[in-house]
Amino acid sequence: MILFPNSKIQINSLLTRNYLLVTTYMIINQMKTLTKILIRVLYIAIFFLSISIRAEKKDTSKIDNQLKNSSTTTQSGISNSIPNDFTGMTSSAKMLISKITLGWNLGNTLEVPGNETNWGNALTTQTLIDSVKAAGFNAVRLPCAWNSHLSDTANYVINPIWLARIKQVIDYCYENDMYVVLNIHWDGGWLENNCTKAKQEVNNRKQRILWNQIAVYFRNYDEHLLFAGCNEPNVDNETEMSVLLSYEQTFIDAVRATGGRNYYRTLIVQGPSTDIDKTTKYMTIMPVDFSINRLALEVHYYSPFQFCLLDKDANWGKMAYFWGANHHQPAVNGVDRNSTFGEEAFVNERFAKIKTLFVDKGYPVIMGEFGVTRRLSLTGSDLVNHLASRAYYLQYVVRQAKNYGLAPFYWDAGHTGDNGTGLFNRNTGAIEDKQAINALVAGAKKGVYP
Q1: What is the pLDDT of residue 260?
Q2: What is the torsion angle, in degrees rounded to the nearest 10, for the CA atoms of residue 117, residue 194, residue 303 and residue 320?
Q3: Which of 232, 248, 343, 432 is catalytic?
Q4: Which CATH code for domain 85-446?
Q5: Per-residue exposure over 254-284, b if at least 16 CB sit within 10 Å of its own CB, e if not
Q6: Residue 228's closest CA among 251, 207, 250?
Q7: Residue 232 catalytic?
Q8: pTM for the structure as a whole
């Protein structure tokens, strides 16, 4: 072979090109191999992802079925849970309770099994609620039965007709820009007479199902509507208190889980027997609520019982007609009828305990019931002095309740005769006890929330 002068350079150039071609080919082959591997990995990943999705759908379906089976609602097509809605719910529980100047109870009207007129009161009307607002009240507590209004007792499904009737009464209050407290009241005693380990599981299930329905039905109402878990749950020891706390936790969880405005709604839990002494003794913790500053406490006050409600003498005590240091009177027919305890200093001491243990720790309180019967069987100066003493009691208790942070709700059972607490004629809305109303309103104006 003959080599020309530049042949060596040409050969080197040729070798370089060949090397680059070979290298490029090898790289391409390696990339093809790598691509095949990546595609296979991707196929495998997609395969396992599809399995996971199918499993998740299966689990979700199972959960949905469980919710449907355990939380049946009366409104077809309405979701048990929707996104939280802050609209119209800007007030904390403390702010909201402080807006209640004076509350009034509808009594047992909506507690009656079957027909709400069966216990002697007329059907509640817009006229009655208008009269209540005009008299100086800006909040209404609606004690309500649900267990006696079920369309399906096995599954605790509330009759839609009853839900609609409760809505109608709530709307009467909303027409007057009033606050409303809606509860599960005595309701045959299924909960409040059974704060026991034996009934805990079944009652918690019932509590959850009922409150799920109530909460979903009234979910679109703004903060003027408050829910209260029960009424006067009977508790006498720590074990029963632990059961009550479970009932109240179930109530809170059931309402919050429905979402919407209910996530921010002010909820009210009850002290044991709603008794101040028992509450300060046994209620050492509150149930958990992840909706911050939206929880309140409820107690009731009928002390001294001999003055407030006792309608005949008993072996443990006799009726008292007169209350207050400056309202004691001579014996009536030879019997001392003055209160022997539970007067002004007692009121202050009891309310101060609630303030220290709850109000000062961020839990506002409603005094959901209080009241004094009128002893209209008395005559002459005895009747005059009794009614003056009663008015003084109402004024003093309301004023001091607000001063210590308790929002007062007067108990009006409707009856306006002897031993009644009624303030209004339930048929016409006319005022039947102006003296008591004046005392209540005066106390509310004098009292100032802390």
Answers
A1: 98
A2: 70
A3: 232
A4: 3.20.20.80
A5: bbbbbbbbbbbbbbbbbbbbbbbebbbbbbe
A6: 251
A7: yes
A8: 0.84
